Amino acid sequence: MASEEERARAISVWNIHYNYHRPHTAIGDQPPASRLKSRVTNVLSSNT
Question: What is the pTM of this model?
Fold first, then answer.
């Protein structure tokens, strides 16, 4: 990565994937965000 901006964007994308798309076995193969009481609607869709 060539800049702080690129690093910040990459962390943002990874954070969304980790919390909203990646299944976690400790909570029944659901992403952590599935445990939130209110649903978030402004999340990027998964590109996988």
Answer: 0.58
